[in-house]
Amino acid sequence: LIVFFLLSRTTKRHCTLYDGQSCSLSGVCHIPMSEPFCTKTREVLIEIAKKLGLQCHSKGTVITIEGPRFSSRAESLMFRSWGADVINMTTVPEVILAKEAGMSYASIAMATDYDCWKEHEEAVSVDKVLKTLKENANKATSILLTAIPQIGSMEWADTLHTLKVSTLRSVSTGDN
Q1: What pTM did the predictor assign?
Q2: Per-residue pLDDT tens for 136-151?
Q3: Structurally, what CATH architecture does the domain formed by 5-165 represent?
Q4: Which of 4, 31, 50, 163 is the one with CA 20 to 30 A from 95?
């Protein structure tokens, strides 16, 4: 899945570059997250996955949970009712920080299990996740090794300018 939307159920993570600390950027950033992932980068990843003959869903919603525990069945069913296609512990805060930094960012989600919402499947376990993760690593590596040169050869000035302007317009310093 090349992630399109995101939901966050995290509360304990550092999710901004503008947190008032001495080493942080000044102001408050109200970054728009209607499209959290870079469309141009997503399109490259989708194209490459298809060229490589990999099963790839081009749109889907990820929900990031705090972890490290797995979801309860009730939580998983609730997340599905909210429209989440994937449950993970790793997309937030990365996508938010990248957006605030004006970076082009996309996320590849490779399923390792059905979580516990699917009643007739084996319950999720660390062993099962690690086994499937190893199998998916080759697919992810193939996508990235093919996509990176293509991304590197593309013109990014307009995209990066748009991202930078979006961030600049989102920061309130008290002076504006």
Answers
A1: 0.89
A2: 999 999 999 999 999 9
A3: 3-Layer(aba) Sandwich (3.40)
A4: 50
